[in-house]
From TrEMBL:
Residues 12-131 form the Mycothiol-dependent maleylpyruvate isomerase metal-binding domain. The lineage of its organism: Bacteria, Bacillati, Actinomycetota, Actinomycetes, Mycobacteriales. Pfam families: MDMPI_N. This is TIGR03086 family metal-binding protein. It comes from Gordonia alkaliphila. It comes from the Bacteria. Coiled coil: none annotated. InterPro entries: CHP03086, DinB/YfiT-like, Maleyloyr_isom, MDMPI_metal-binding.
Length: 192
C-alpha cells in the first residue's frame, strides 16, 4: 500500500533512528556525501528540521536559525540527543488527525501533508547519507522511493537542483538498485 505523508514521516523517523543507533561512537566526524558536512552535521541538520516540525505540529512559535556547521548543535551524546528528538516528534505526530489542516511554517501557511512531505523524504535521504558516512549499508524502502519519485515529478529542476536541495542528477547504471537510482537522481554517488 502506498504511503501518505504521515506514513512517510513516521517510517522515516524509524529508518533514521536505526541508522543513528548503529553509528559507531568514533564515526560521527567522518565526511558525509553532503559536501563539507560530517555525519554529525547531517544529524544536526535533520535534528534542526525535526525541532521545527515539532513546533509546527504542536502549534508553538517557531524560530529557525541556520547554524554552520549544523553539527555544532549536537551534544556529546549524539544518539541520545536524536532519540529524545525522535520521541518528541512521535508525540507531536500522534496529535495529527487531519493531514489537510493548515499550519504556519517558514514557507507560510501550508497543510500538514505538505509540511511533512519534504522532511519525511529528508529522513530517508539523510539517513542514507549518515549510513554512508559511518560505514553502514542501507537500502531505502520501496514505499519511500515511490513517494519521493512522485513528489519530485511535480517540482521543477530550477527549484530542486540548487544548493541545499539536490545536485545535478547522476547517471545510474542500467542494473542499479531502486535505491541507487534514486540517490543518483538526487545527485548523490551511491558508491560513496
Amino acid at each position: 500500500m502506498a504511503w501518505d505523508a504521515l506514513d512517510l514521516y513516521t517510517h522515516g523517523l524509524d529508518f533514521f533512528s536505526e541508522v543513528v543507533d548503529a553509528v559507531p561512537v568514533d564515526s560521527w566526524n567522518r565526511a558525509s556525501p553532503c559536501a563539507g558536512w560530517t555525519g554529525k552535521d547531517v544529524l544536526g541538520h535533520v535534528g534542526a528540521g525535526t525541532e521545527m516540525g515539532i513546533a509546527i505540529l504542536s502549534g508553538k512559535p517557531m524560530a529557525y536559525e541556520a547554524v554552520d556547521p549544523p553539527g555544532s548543535v549536537v551534544p556529546d551524546d549524539p544518539a541520545s540527543w536524536w532519540r529524545d528528538l525522535a520521541a518528541a516528534a512521535r508525540t507531536a505526530l500522534a496529535t495529527v488527525e487531519d493531514l489537510d489542516r493548515v499550519v504556519e511554517s517558514p514557507a507560510g501557511p501550508r497543510s500538514v501533508r505538505d509540511g511533512l512531505s519534504f522532511p519525511g523524504v529528508d529522513l530517508f535521504l539523510h539517513g542514507w547519507d549518515l549510513a554512508a558516512a559511518t560505514g553502514q549499508k542501507v537500502e531505502l524502502p520501496a514505499e519511500a522511493i515511490a513517494f519521493t519519485e512522485q513528489m519530485f515529478t511535480h517540482i521543477p529542476d530550477e527549484v530542486s537542483r540548487q544548493p541545499g536541495v539536490f545536485g545535478p542528477a547522476l547517471e545510474a547504471p542500467a542494473d542499479a538498485s531502486a535505491t541507487d537510482r534514486l540517490l543518483s537522481f538526487t545527485g548523490r554517488d551511491p558508491s560513496f
